[in-house]
């Protein structure tokens, strides 16, 4: 198969070429570089497939690492150059169009696996060499005199040519022989090395059993031991080794010498530390990441009795605006500066700052007195954000909202604590931002309930958990029932009957308000048809009309007009049977595009009511351009009329609104009528219709049928 120019096969071969050019100079092989490149090509293909596999398998990385040793790439520099090539070019040439962050994470794990596979294969090879050396050493002690010269020559060849460090000492620890590899590892002359005693090679990081095993070996109680040990070099640097020490016995079996085999693991250890750092720290800011923070938080929450913790969850206010206006590069520089400032706020013992992702940061403090310390930490963070940050010549003002959770260790888990802090942070943001709030269990419970309701909303509509109650609209002149307002309710399986204030804002936020509103409209119009069929003899007082509320989200939905037309046609109802209520606040500053669907509905004969009139700007001059036929006066204007005498100012206001509305051919409906005196006063002022508990509370459609029947029969 011939690959297309610059296709995946071409990019794979470029990666193999770069890899071979980097590693070939430090490889002990008789192959030419092109031949060596052909050896690396299948390994590059395995890495490419592992990088893009649906289910990631790090075993491929270990297999490739082991294959390098088989290809005679045993020099540590070969591994270092290999990992550098993989880090720099694997995702670039073999990543395709996948998620770059996921590909980089996979690439890092492949590097770790390659290093592990390389080390394991090299260790196996080393152990084989160690066994050969040990056997040679034993044979060298037990051969007969006539074979001594030949045996010594073979031992010397292995001893000097081995890639690992070898040293021999007597049972008192005096060093007798060392090979060149060991001298290079320590960076010291043979004379200086042989002047040292084995017992002097101590290090603070020695495992507890190190010298116990040594004592057992020189006493002849064990034949060998293996462990990881650190040594100081003369220049003060640390040499990390895999150390194997074996006991050599004389012809009679008595302990005579000790033989040490050392594999230099310093580079591998540094690589592991680097990979661990990259896995636990944020690449952009250098702060600990979510993984590292959860480890620290879990440790803090598991501390002993008397210990407490304090957590500050910070989210920058308006950060999205920076990204949208100045670009993500500017946003990244802003985050780096914020991270530096936060880092300077958490310098005391037991304090740390981490970046969870995006513009979200957390600060943790631990100890016996975090109640005071966490407030001080939050204050320091807020102060650190006061000074503007310069990005691309612009001075950007940064503000943040902080949620604080504080309490004793051992009572909650990390996920619960972080959830509470997140909820509290959003409460601070909802209160205007640039502030911090303390966690409140009751507020947390309300937020969790809201989340539960939000997630349950879609299935609730499918399961038929919503129902509609109707509150009658009464004519103030003759007291007849002219219609009803449809009010949706949710019969929740756990929380019982919920009013619209509990779930309508959630439905608007999720967009479910459109299908829910369509369902309410259709059910209400069908109910209006049933009322008209039942009250055919009540035409003297006019047909019963249904009022249905429209949310701002429904107003902007392109299917509003067509949905309304379809519902009226399916139910066989005339447009004058329907009144759509729109809040005044939804129409403040409305342009012609927003008003166009309402105008089309009004031209069809559907009444449009301006709901909650008086709660917005009450721009009376704006009424002329709105396609409304009814004003629904907010109850705040008429509450004083429940008492006698009524507030004269409210009377004048209502009288003026009614006069203006009638001059514009608008009918006036009043909400919240609760007393007979209030109803009479509104009738005298000229209001047309009213609704409220004085007439009836919202209820099932049968109740309105009974009220309308009473009115119709006198």
From TrEMBL:
The cross-references to CDD domains, in alphabetical order and at most eight, read: EAL, GGDEF, PAS
What positions does the domain EAL occupy? 450-712
Annotated PAC domain ranges read 225-277
- Could you tell me which residue ranges the GGDEF domain spans? 307-441
Q: Which residues form the PAS domain?
A: 151-221
Enumerate the Pfam families for this protein. Answer: EAL, GGDEF, PAS
GO terms for biological process, alphabetical: regulation of DNA-templated transcription
Q: Which domain of life is it from?
A: Bacteria
Q: Which NCBIfam families match?
A: GGDEF (TIGR00254), sensory_box (TIGR00229)
Q: What is this protein called?
A: Diguanylate cyclase/phosphodiesterase with PAS/PAC sensor
Native source species: Streptomyces viridochromogenes (strain DSM 40736 / JCM 4977 / BCRC 1201 / Tue 494)
């Amino acid at each position: 198969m011939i690959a297309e120019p610059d296709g995946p096969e071409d990019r794979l071969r470029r990666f193999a070429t770069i890899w071979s050019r980097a590693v070939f100079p430090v490889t002990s092989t008789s192959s030419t570089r092109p031949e060596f490149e052909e050896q690396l090509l299948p390994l590059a293909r395995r890495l490419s497939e592992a990088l893009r596999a649906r289910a990631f398998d790090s075993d491929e990385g270990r297999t490739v690492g082991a294959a390098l040793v088989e290809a005679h790439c045993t020099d540590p520099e070969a591994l270092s150059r290999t990992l550098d090539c993989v880090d720099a070019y694997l995702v670039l040439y073999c990543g395709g169009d996948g998620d770059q962050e996921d590909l980089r994470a996979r690439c890092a794990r492949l590097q770790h696996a390659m290093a592990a596979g390389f080390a394991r294969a090299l260790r196996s090879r080393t152990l084989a060499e160690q066994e050969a050396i040990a056997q040679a050493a034993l044979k060298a002690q037990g051969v007969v005199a006539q074979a001594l010269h030949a045996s010594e020559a073979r031992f010397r060849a292995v001893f000097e040519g081995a890639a690992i460090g070898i040293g021999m000492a007597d049972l008192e620890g005096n060093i007798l022989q060392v090979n060149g590899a060991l001298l290079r590892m320590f960076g010291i002359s043979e004379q200086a090395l042989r002047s040292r005693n084995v017992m002097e090679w101590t290090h603070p990081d020695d495992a507890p059993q190190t010298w116990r095993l040594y004592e057992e070996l020189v006493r002849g109680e064990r034949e060998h031991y293996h462990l990881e040990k650190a040594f100081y070099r003369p220049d003060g640097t640390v040499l990390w080794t895999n150390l194997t020490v074996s006991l050599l016995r004389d012809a009679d079996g008595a302990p005579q010498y000790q033989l040490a085999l050392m594999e230099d693991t310093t580079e591998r250890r540094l690589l592991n530390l680097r990979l661990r750092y990259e896995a636990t720290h944020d690449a952009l800011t250098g702060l600990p990441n979510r993984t590292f923070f959860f480890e620290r938080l879990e440790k803090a929450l598991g501390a002993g009795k008397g210990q407490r913790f304090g957590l500050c969850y910070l989210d920058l206010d308006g950060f999205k605006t920076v990204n949208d206006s100045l670009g993500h590069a500017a946003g990244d520089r802003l985050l780096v500066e914020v991270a530096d400032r936060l880092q300077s706020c958490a310098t005391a013992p037991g304090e740390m700052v981490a970046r969870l992702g995006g513009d979200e940061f957390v600060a943790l403090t631990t100890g016996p007195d975090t109640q005071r310390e966490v407030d001080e930490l939050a204050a320091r963070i807020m102060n650190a954000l006061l000074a503007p940050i310069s990005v691309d010549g612009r001075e950007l003002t940064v503000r943040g909202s902080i949620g604080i959770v504080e309490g004793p260790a051992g009572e909650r888990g990390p996920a619960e604590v972080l959830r509470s802090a997140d909820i509290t942070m959003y409460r601070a943001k909802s209160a205007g931002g640039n502030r911090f709030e303390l966690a409140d269990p009751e507020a947390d419970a309300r937020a969790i309930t809201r989340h539960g309701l939000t997630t349950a909303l879609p299935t609730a509509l499918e399961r038929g958990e919503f129902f509609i109650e109707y509150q009658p609209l009464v004519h103030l002149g003759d007291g007849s029932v002219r219609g009803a307002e449809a009010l949706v309710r949710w019969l929740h399986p756990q929380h019982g009957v919920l009013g619209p204030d509990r779930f309508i804002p959630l439905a608007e936020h999720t967009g479910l308000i459109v299908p829910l509103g369509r369902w309410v409209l259709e059910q209400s119009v069908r109910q209006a048809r049933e009322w008209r069929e039942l009250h055919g003899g009540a035409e003297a007082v006019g047909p019963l009309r249904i009022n249905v509320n429209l949310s701002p989200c429904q107003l902007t939905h392109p299917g509003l007009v067509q949905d309304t037309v379809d519902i009226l046609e399916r139910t066989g109802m005339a447009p004058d049977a329907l009144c759509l209520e729109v809040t005044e606040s939804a129409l403040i500053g409305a342009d012609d595009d927003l008003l166009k669907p309402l105008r089309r509905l009004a031209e069809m004969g559907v009444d449009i009511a301006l709901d909650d009139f008086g709660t917005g700007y009450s721009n009376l001059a704006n009424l002329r351009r709105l396609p409304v036929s009814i004003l629904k006066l907010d109850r705040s204007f008429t509450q004083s009329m429940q008492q006698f005498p009524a507030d004269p100012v409210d009377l004048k206001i209502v009288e003026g609104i009614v006069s203006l509305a009638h001059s514009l051919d608008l009918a006036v409906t009043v909400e919240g009528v609760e007393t007979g005196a209030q109803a009479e006063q509104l009738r005298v002022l000229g209001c047309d219709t009213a609704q409220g508990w004085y007439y009836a509370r919202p209820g099932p459609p049968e109740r309105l049928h009974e009220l309308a029947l009473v009115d119709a029969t006198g």
